[in-house]
Amino acid sequence: MKVFKSHITFSKEQRYGIFLLLLIIVILQSIYFFWDKTTEVTEIPKQDLIVFQNEIDSLKAIEIEKAKPKRFPFNPNYITDFKGYTLGMTNEEIDKLHKYRKENKWINSAEDFQKVTGISDSLFLQISPYFKFPDWVTEKSVKTKKFQQHTNRPLTFNQKADLNTATALQLQSVYGIGEKLSQRILKLRGSFEGGFISVIQLQDVYGLSPEVIENLEEKFTVKTPRVVEKVNLNTATTNELVQIQHIDYPLAKEILEYRTLHESFNDLDELLKVKGFPLQKLDIIKLYLAIN
Protein backbone atom coordinates (compact mmCIF):
# COMPACT_ATOMS: atom_id res chain seq x y z
CA MET A 1 0.00 0.00 0.00
CA LYS A 2 1.33 3.36 -1.09
CA VAL A 3 1.57 6.23 1.34
CA PHE A 4 0.61 9.69 -0.04
CA LYS A 5 2.84 12.44 1.16
CA SER A 6 2.00 16.16 1.09
CA HIS A 7 3.68 18.13 -1.66
CA ILE A 8 3.60 21.19 0.57
CA THR A 9 6.27 21.01 3.15
CA PHE A 10 7.69 23.72 5.39
CA SER A 11 10.96 23.92 7.10
CA LYS A 12 11.23 24.58 10.78
CA GLU A 13 12.07 28.27 10.20
CA GLN A 14 9.07 28.68 7.84
CA ARG A 15 6.70 27.13 10.36
CA TYR A 16 8.02 29.50 12.99
CA GLY A 17 7.47 32.53 10.68
CA ILE A 18 3.88 31.49 9.92
CA PHE A 19 3.15 31.08 13.60
CA LEU A 20 4.61 34.53 14.34
CA LEU A 21 2.52 36.14 11.56
CA LEU A 22 -0.69 34.58 12.90
CA LEU A 23 0.18 35.77 16.39
CA ILE A 24 0.65 39.37 15.17
CA ILE A 25 -2.70 39.27 13.34
CA VAL A 26 -4.49 38.04 16.47
CA ILE A 27 -2.87 40.76 18.59
CA LEU A 28 -3.82 43.54 16.13
CA GLN A 29 -7.40 42.29 15.90
CA SER A 30 -7.63 42.22 19.69
CA ILE A 31 -6.32 45.77 19.97
CA TYR A 32 -8.83 46.99 17.34
CA PHE A 33 -11.72 45.22 19.06
CA PHE A 34 -11.01 46.44 22.58
CA TRP A 35 -9.80 49.95 21.59
CA ASP A 36 -12.14 52.75 22.71
CA LYS A 37 -13.11 54.58 19.53
CA THR A 38 -14.77 57.49 21.27
CA THR A 39 -12.87 60.75 20.98
CA GLU A 40 -12.86 63.48 23.48
CA VAL A 41 -14.89 66.48 22.28
CA THR A 42 -13.43 69.80 23.22
CA GLU A 43 -16.16 72.05 24.50
CA ILE A 44 -15.85 75.69 23.36
CA PRO A 45 -17.15 78.30 25.78
CA LYS A 46 -20.42 79.95 24.65
CA GLN A 47 -18.89 83.41 24.91
CA ASP A 48 -16.15 82.45 22.44
CA LEU A 49 -18.78 81.10 20.03
CA ILE A 50 -20.59 84.43 20.17
CA VAL A 51 -17.35 86.27 19.38
CA PHE A 52 -16.62 83.99 16.42
CA GLN A 53 -20.17 84.38 15.11
CA ASN A 54 -19.94 88.18 15.33
CA GLU A 55 -16.68 88.13 13.36
CA ILE A 56 -18.28 85.95 10.68
CA ASP A 57 -21.30 88.26 10.47
CA SER A 58 -19.08 91.32 10.12
CA LEU A 59 -17.08 89.69 7.33
CA LYS A 60 -20.32 88.78 5.54
CA ALA A 61 -21.55 92.36 5.87
CA ILE A 62 -18.30 93.65 4.36
CA GLU A 63 -18.62 91.28 1.39
CA ILE A 64 -22.25 92.29 0.86
CA GLU A 65 -21.26 95.95 0.89
CA LYS A 66 -18.48 95.29 -1.63
CA ALA A 67 -20.94 93.48 -3.90
CA LYS A 68 -23.28 96.47 -4.05
CA PRO A 69 -22.97 98.61 -7.21
CA LYS A 70 -20.89 101.69 -6.52
CA ARG A 71 -22.32 105.11 -7.26
CA PHE A 72 -20.24 108.01 -8.43
CA PRO A 73 -21.14 111.71 -8.60
CA PHE A 74 -23.16 112.59 -11.71
CA ASN A 75 -25.06 115.48 -13.25
CA PRO A 76 -28.80 114.67 -12.98
CA ASN A 77 -29.49 116.61 -16.16
CA TYR A 78 -28.04 113.70 -18.16
CA ILE A 79 -29.86 110.76 -16.59
CA THR A 80 -30.71 108.20 -19.28
CA ASP A 81 -33.50 105.63 -19.16
CA PHE A 82 -31.06 102.95 -17.99
CA LYS A 83 -29.42 105.21 -15.40
CA GLY A 84 -32.81 106.24 -14.02
CA TYR A 85 -33.88 102.60 -13.77
CA THR A 86 -30.74 101.65 -11.82
CA LEU A 87 -31.32 104.59 -9.48
CA GLY A 88 -34.82 103.33 -8.71
CA MET A 89 -36.83 105.91 -10.65
CA THR A 90 -40.10 104.98 -12.31
CA ASN A 91 -40.73 105.38 -16.05
CA GLU A 92 -43.07 108.28 -15.33
CA GLU A 93 -40.42 110.11 -13.30
CA ILE A 94 -37.80 109.57 -16.01
CA ASP A 95 -40.21 110.82 -18.69
CA LYS A 96 -40.88 113.98 -16.67
CA LEU A 97 -37.15 114.68 -16.54
CA HIS A 98 -36.70 114.12 -20.29
CA LYS A 99 -39.70 116.32 -21.09
CA TYR A 100 -38.27 119.10 -18.93
CA ARG A 101 -34.92 118.84 -20.70
CA LYS A 102 -36.52 118.89 -24.15
CA GLU A 103 -37.88 122.31 -23.27
CA ASN A 104 -34.23 123.40 -23.04
CA LYS A 105 -34.48 123.80 -19.27
CA TRP A 106 -31.80 122.77 -16.80
CA ILE A 107 -31.86 121.45 -13.26
CA ASN A 108 -29.49 123.41 -11.03
CA SER A 109 -30.18 121.93 -7.61
CA ALA A 110 -31.28 118.74 -5.92
CA GLU A 111 -34.53 120.42 -4.90
CA ASP A 112 -35.25 121.30 -8.54
CA PHE A 113 -34.73 117.66 -9.47
CA GLN A 114 -37.31 116.42 -6.95
CA LYS A 115 -39.74 119.14 -7.96
CA VAL A 116 -39.49 118.28 -11.66
CA THR A 117 -39.51 114.47 -11.38
CA GLY A 118 -41.69 114.08 -8.30
CA ILE A 119 -39.51 111.32 -6.79
CA SER A 120 -40.27 110.17 -3.25
CA ASP A 121 -38.47 111.64 -0.26
CA SER A 122 -36.82 108.30 0.52
CA LEU A 123 -35.35 107.97 -2.99
CA PHE A 124 -34.37 111.63 -2.94
CA LEU A 125 -32.36 111.11 0.25
CA GLN A 126 -30.60 108.11 -1.33
CA ILE A 127 -29.49 109.65 -4.63
CA SER A 128 -29.27 113.42 -4.01
CA PRO A 129 -25.86 113.16 -2.23
CA TYR A 130 -24.42 111.94 -5.55
CA PHE A 131 -25.67 114.93 -7.58
CA LYS A 132 -22.82 116.95 -9.00
CA PHE A 133 -23.41 120.35 -10.54
CA PRO A 134 -20.82 122.63 -12.16
CA ASP A 135 -18.86 124.85 -9.81
CA TRP A 136 -20.45 127.99 -11.12
CA VAL A 137 -23.84 126.68 -9.95
CA THR A 138 -22.78 125.59 -6.47
CA GLU A 139 -20.27 128.33 -5.66
CA LYS A 140 -21.82 131.66 -4.80
CA SER A 141 -18.90 133.82 -5.80
CA VAL A 142 -18.95 137.59 -6.07
CA LYS A 143 -18.64 137.34 -9.83
CA THR A 144 -21.74 135.17 -10.00
CA LYS A 145 -23.73 137.67 -7.95
CA LYS A 146 -22.68 140.55 -10.21
CA PHE A 147 -23.64 138.52 -13.24
CA GLN A 148 -27.06 137.78 -11.75
CA GLN A 149 -27.63 141.46 -11.01
CA HIS A 150 -27.13 142.30 -14.67
CA THR A 151 -29.41 139.52 -15.86
CA ASN A 152 -32.40 140.10 -13.64
CA ARG A 153 -34.31 141.42 -16.63
CA PRO A 154 -34.20 139.05 -19.61
CA LEU A 155 -33.11 140.68 -22.85
CA THR A 156 -35.53 140.73 -25.73
CA PHE A 157 -34.73 139.15 -29.08
CA ASN A 158 -33.77 142.54 -30.52
CA GLN A 159 -31.53 143.34 -27.55
CA LYS A 160 -29.54 140.14 -27.87
CA ALA A 161 -26.43 139.95 -30.08
CA ASP A 162 -26.27 137.71 -33.14
CA LEU A 163 -24.29 134.55 -32.41
CA ASN A 164 -23.34 134.30 -36.08
CA THR A 165 -21.49 137.62 -35.99
CA ALA A 166 -20.20 137.61 -32.39
CA THR A 167 -16.48 138.04 -31.82
CA ALA A 168 -14.33 136.09 -29.38
CA LEU A 169 -14.20 139.06 -26.99
CA GLN A 170 -17.99 139.38 -27.04
CA LEU A 171 -18.37 135.69 -26.24
CA GLN A 172 -15.90 136.00 -23.38
CA SER A 173 -18.22 138.51 -21.71
CA VAL A 174 -20.41 135.53 -20.82
CA TYR A 175 -19.60 134.06 -17.43
CA GLY A 176 -17.99 130.67 -17.93
CA ILE A 177 -16.53 131.34 -21.38
CA GLY A 178 -12.83 131.99 -21.63
CA GLU A 179 -10.39 132.28 -24.49
CA LYS A 180 -10.35 128.57 -25.33
CA LEU A 181 -14.11 128.11 -25.30
CA SER A 182 -14.70 131.24 -27.36
CA GLN A 183 -12.24 129.95 -29.99
CA ARG A 184 -13.97 126.57 -30.05
CA ILE A 185 -17.33 128.27 -30.62
CA LEU A 186 -15.92 130.30 -33.50
CA LYS A 187 -14.27 127.20 -34.96
CA LEU A 188 -17.55 125.26 -34.90
CA ARG A 189 -19.38 128.22 -36.44
CA GLY A 190 -16.78 128.43 -39.17
CA SER A 191 -17.25 124.74 -40.01
CA PHE A 192 -20.73 125.58 -41.34
CA GLU A 193 -21.09 127.64 -44.46
CA GLY A 194 -23.43 130.35 -43.27
CA GLY A 195 -22.93 129.80 -39.54
CA PHE A 196 -25.27 128.36 -36.96
CA ILE A 197 -28.89 127.39 -37.49
CA SER A 198 -29.69 127.48 -33.79
CA VAL A 199 -28.05 127.99 -30.42
CA ILE A 200 -28.73 124.29 -29.84
CA GLN A 201 -25.67 123.48 -31.96
CA LEU A 202 -23.47 124.84 -29.18
CA GLN A 203 -23.99 121.47 -27.50
CA ASP A 204 -21.31 120.16 -29.86
CA VAL A 205 -18.66 122.50 -28.42
CA TYR A 206 -16.31 120.42 -26.28
CA GLY A 207 -16.18 121.63 -22.68
CA LEU A 208 -19.18 123.93 -22.98
CA SER A 209 -21.55 122.94 -20.19
CA PRO A 210 -25.34 123.26 -20.43
CA GLU A 211 -25.29 125.91 -17.74
CA VAL A 212 -22.85 128.09 -19.67
CA ILE A 213 -24.92 127.63 -22.84
CA GLU A 214 -27.90 128.89 -20.86
CA ASN A 215 -25.86 131.92 -19.80
CA LEU A 216 -24.89 132.56 -23.40
CA GLU A 217 -28.50 132.35 -24.58
CA GLU A 218 -29.37 135.19 -22.24
CA LYS A 219 -27.16 137.55 -24.26
CA PHE A 220 -26.93 135.91 -27.71
CA THR A 221 -29.25 134.32 -30.22
CA VAL A 222 -29.07 133.29 -33.87
CA LYS A 223 -30.59 136.20 -35.78
CA THR A 224 -29.24 135.20 -39.20
CA PRO A 225 -29.54 131.41 -39.35
CA ARG A 226 -28.20 129.69 -42.42
CA VAL A 227 -30.83 128.30 -44.74
CA VAL A 228 -31.16 124.52 -44.58
CA GLU A 229 -33.30 122.35 -46.83
CA LYS A 230 -34.78 119.85 -44.45
CA VAL A 231 -34.88 116.17 -45.38
CA ASN A 232 -38.20 114.32 -45.27
CA LEU A 233 -37.65 111.58 -42.70
CA ASN A 234 -40.26 109.33 -44.31
CA THR A 235 -38.62 109.37 -47.76
CA ALA A 236 -34.95 109.98 -46.94
CA THR A 237 -32.34 107.60 -48.34
CA THR A 238 -29.27 106.33 -46.52
CA ASN A 239 -27.01 108.78 -48.36
CA GLU A 240 -29.27 111.69 -47.43
CA LEU A 241 -29.36 110.71 -43.78
CA VAL A 242 -25.58 110.35 -43.39
CA GLN A 243 -25.17 113.96 -44.53
CA ILE A 244 -26.82 115.03 -41.27
CA GLN A 245 -24.74 115.69 -38.16
CA HIS A 246 -24.41 112.73 -35.78
CA ILE A 247 -25.95 110.22 -38.19
CA ASP A 248 -23.57 107.58 -39.55
CA TYR A 249 -24.26 104.60 -41.78
CA PRO A 250 -25.14 102.12 -38.99
CA LEU A 251 -27.59 104.60 -37.45
CA ALA A 252 -29.06 105.47 -40.85
CA LYS A 253 -29.64 101.76 -41.44
CA GLU A 254 -31.43 101.41 -38.09
CA ILE A 255 -33.62 104.44 -38.92
CA LEU A 256 -34.64 102.96 -42.28
CA GLU A 257 -35.34 99.57 -40.71
CA TYR A 258 -37.54 101.18 -38.07
CA ARG A 259 -39.36 103.21 -40.74
CA THR A 260 -39.98 100.08 -42.83
CA LEU A 261 -41.20 98.10 -39.84
CA HIS A 262 -43.59 100.83 -38.71
CA GLU A 263 -44.37 102.03 -42.26
CA SER A 264 -43.49 105.63 -41.39
CA PHE A 265 -42.59 108.10 -38.66
CA ASN A 266 -45.44 110.08 -37.11
CA ASP A 267 -43.23 112.46 -35.18
CA LEU A 268 -39.54 113.38 -35.10
CA ASP A 269 -39.39 112.47 -31.41
CA GLU A 270 -40.14 108.91 -32.49
CA LEU A 271 -36.46 108.71 -33.47
CA LEU A 272 -35.74 108.09 -29.80
CA LYS A 273 -37.17 104.60 -30.28
CA VAL A 274 -34.59 103.77 -32.93
CA LYS A 275 -31.89 101.41 -31.68
CA GLY A 276 -28.64 103.22 -30.89
CA PHE A 277 -30.06 106.71 -31.44
CA PRO A 278 -28.06 109.41 -29.55
CA LEU A 279 -30.59 110.89 -27.16
CA GLN A 280 -28.56 114.02 -26.38
CA LYS A 281 -28.24 114.90 -30.08
CA LEU A 282 -31.94 114.73 -30.96
CA ASP A 283 -32.47 118.50 -30.95
CA ILE A 284 -29.54 119.05 -33.30
CA ILE A 285 -30.59 116.27 -35.67
CA LYS A 286 -34.14 117.65 -35.77
CA LEU A 287 -32.80 120.87 -37.29
CA TYR A 288 -32.20 118.97 -40.53
CA LEU A 289 -35.33 116.80 -40.65
CA ALA A 290 -39.02 117.20 -41.37
CA ILE A 291 -42.04 114.94 -41.71
CA ASN A 292 -44.17 115.57 -44.79
TrEMBL record:
Organism placement in taxonomy: Bacteria, Pseudomonadati, Bacteroidota, Flavobacteriia, Flavobacteriales
InterPro entries: Endo/Exo/Phosphatase_dom_1, RuvA_2-like
The protein's name in its UniProt record: Helix-hairpin-helix domain-containing protein
SUPFAM superfamilies found in the cross-reference section: RuvA domain 2-like
Organism: Formosa undariae
Domain of life of the organism encoding this protein: Bacteria
RNA-binding is among the record's keywords: no
Parts of the chain that traverse the membrane: 16-35
Gene3D superfamilies (alphabetical): Photosystem II 12 kDa extrinsic protein (1.10.150.320)
Protein keywords: Membrane, Transmembrane, Transmembrane helix
